[in-house]
Amino acid sequence: MKNYSIKDIAEIAGVSVATVSRVINDNGRFSEETRKKVLKVIEETGYKMNYSAKNLRMNKSFTIGILVPDISNYFFSDVVQQLEEILFAKGYSTIICNTSRSSEKELAYLRILEGKGVDGLIVISGAEAFQFDSSSAEKKIPYICIDREPKKKEDTVFISSNHYQGAFESAEELIREGCQHPVIAMHNQKSTSAKERLKGFKDALKKNSISFNPKQHLLSIDIESEDFEHDLLNFLKKNPETDGIFSINDLIALELMLRLKKNHIAVPQKIKLIGFDDTPSGKYTTPTLSSVKQNTDLIANHAVETLLELINNKGELGRQIVVPVSLVLRESSTP
Amino acid sequence: MKNYSIKDIAEIAGVSVATVSRVINDNGRFSEETRKKVLKVIEETGYKMNYSAKNLRMNKSFTIGILVPDISNYFFSDVVQQLEEILFAKGYSTIICNTSRSSEKELAYLRILEGKGVDGLIVISGAEAFQFDSSSAEKKIPYICIDREPKKKEDTVFISSNHYQGAFESAEELIREGCQHPVIAMHNQKSTSAKERLKGFKDALKKNSISFNPKQHLLSIDIESEDFEHDLLNFLKKNPETDGIFSINDLIALELMLRLKKNHIAVPQKIKLIGFDDTPSGKYTTPTLSSVKQNTDLIANHAVETLLELINNKGELGRQIVVPVSLVLRESSTP
């Protein structure tokens, strides 16, 4: 009797190897018809299903886990949505875990995703450098970091937007529009993306012979705080020459616009404003909000492509992929 | 030798039964210290770990699956975020699957979640009545429907906002503010929530002696369509007396506001506007947007409570829980 391989089974049944695997593991997408067809071929050929099924189960689940800090954030949910679509089209299912920015939860979910046998992981954002060591030496789970600096660069591929470029171009745009005292508004300075944005902003000031002074050019402001408006007005009292604000994200930018309006400080006439993320809200405000748009489409495509390479033991580790951003100019930063 | 139970182990180790189970299954949250402590007690007592572990594994994974049609939608991501928080506090982990409103994906993810051994399912929204039959007769997986009508009411608990009330009160508010020709703007009429909202709107008109005529009172409009503005203007041309619009969701309401503004039709002076969902964008627009707020907090709490009851073979099936909504009045519907 011929020793049939899973490839043979797939060929005889007229389906893909992935489909045979899914039928054997009863995992994922196939019609009842396909299931019957594949099982019939397995029966007829005497294919050693159990052994292979076990083997397959150890090797492939066609499931990818995603760790995301906050799915109610527009940028995150947009990336996750796109990752899921691309992965599904390639025959992979996605399970998403929301860590609420808690490192305790992150650890718990990493264990769970590993326990559920995911083939790979995509980790999105977060304040501290990301570290993950598969608990089994037999099945090392490959992972990709999006906007999250990996602790061991040599273990992963690090994908991020060019945050530096977005901030640099925003600051330059404010200066080009006549701002002499541009300010960066931000809260958390710990994440890689925040650090890069701050660096880009500072470098643009330097290039334009403005010497960066935190007291004059850095508005430290927390969207969650009840003192938001107080902190803003306090800063403007100390720095009445402020004529442009680059906000590290649109959430802060929208809230700034609201509070400035409330205090009769005209945007863009008195203060020009540029945000980051290009959230949908920005096109409904008066004035409409200028913002830096991240290319989530390209980020998601790169992430899936490189992760599937790693899963198939191809692709080069230790790389960083930087995806360009674009400045979307609207009324809040133009005359 | 005494035959120790998992309860005894928990008591001796000074932890909960759930924690012992998690350590045995290496699933979820526990510190290294806890792990050592539990394993030491198991060793000392000679607790028959393997048998019980297998048993436990069949019975409890402390993982809940959530099916959501579109996590980039504010209401959905808000509910999911809250479900996760409440479940995590109760010792359960959550895995989220995004179905992109595709029934093919929904079926695939149901199989996958079942394969991953979730203890229960929460299904959010969707156009068709939801049907789910556990593939194993031994382990029936309990499920809760949020805003999604179940096909077999006797198998589940159905939780939803009082969509009827939200629409009814919105229409009454428009009429109270002087609108004589209120219109409902919507696209899809298939989902339970859409049907209920339409019904509430119609009944409010009836109560106020306005006879509902689809040609005059129903603006069928698709947010995804390029003809959005054309369809709006076309409707207003045929129905120039329109003086109030209740929009079935904020996405449509915001887009309506933008297009009306662009065509110099003043909101609220010429047309008053009320949306549904109270998305964050609504407070940044000019005028700010009136909207119906769903009580996601209460919905999430009811869902977790009833699901955990079902998992523990308590609680009554076949129930429907209707959660009241509240009308948040802002500038778009007031004089």
Automatic annotation (TrEMBL), chains A, B:
Residues 4-58 form the HTH lacI-type domain. The keyword DNA damage does not apply. GO terms for molecular function: DNA-binding transcription factor activity; transcription cis-regulatory region binding. It comes from the Bacteria. Gene3D superfamilies: 3.40.50.2300, lambda repressor-like DNA-binding domains. Pfam families: LacI, Peripla_BP_3. The keyword Repressor applies. Keywords: DNA-binding, Repressor, Transcription, Transcription regulation. InterPro entries: HTH_LacI, LacI/GalR-like_sensor, Lambda_DNA-bd_dom_sf, Peripla_BP_I. This is LacI family transcriptional regulator.
